[in-house]
């Protein structure tokens, strides 16, 4: 170390020299040696650079190098990211993943093997033939299921998601579309006709009841009122039948 030590340093250094750079750092900063050609220069940083991990001591905080296969690490024995060509597993960098695990080339990690999972089968569909449900005796019915978990690279592949089988049904005639439409139109017209007929009958009934009521009221008005007076029989003189 050059004996010329300066106290008025820049860049976070607590003490420094013209030849070696920082010799110590201000509180909470990390001291790290950077190589420039054949020379090492001390610098003070707020965090350790890639490929280094930090350790704190009472008198100084230092940055130390990770292992050769490790790109970033938490400690020397625990890597958080591996260099190209290595896969991370439990803090270690491996060229090949252990049994039961597979290499994920996207994350460069060893991960668990995931097998495909499918849902339960749906109920069988109605028996059909060429898209129709009538006009045949032998047809086909189908059932389906969904994939709920897709497999990883080394996982078991997914099974079929649909099945069909032959089916036998009682033959029934297919109603022609034109005839069926005509029948539906006739039924609609008949229904409207019946409704109109019932409406007319109800209107006639109301009119007849109203006419009868008016007739009774007119008859009551035309009848003369009875006059009140003495009984004629009471005014007649007694007849003498003795002679």
From TrEMBL:
Compositionally biased spans, kind Basic and acidic residues: 175-219
Cross-referenced InterPro entries: Furin_repeat, Growth_fac_rcpt_cys_sf, R-spondin, Rspo_Fu-CRD_dom, TSP1_rpt, TSP1_rpt_sf, TSP1_spondin_dom
GO terms, biological process: positive regulation of non-canonical Wnt signaling pathway; Wnt signaling pathway
Domain R-spondin Fu-CRD per the UniProt entry, residue ranges: 11-110
SUPFAM superfamilies: Growth factor receptor domain, TSP-1 type 1 repeat
Domain named Spondin-like TSP1: residues: 116-170
Main location as per UniProt: secreted
GO cellular component, one term: extracellular region
Record has Secreted as a keyword: yes
Entry similarity comment: Belongs to the R-spondin family.
Name assigned to this protein: R-spondin-3
Organism placement in taxonomy: Eukaryota, Metazoa, Chordata, Craniata, Vertebrata
Gene: Rspo3
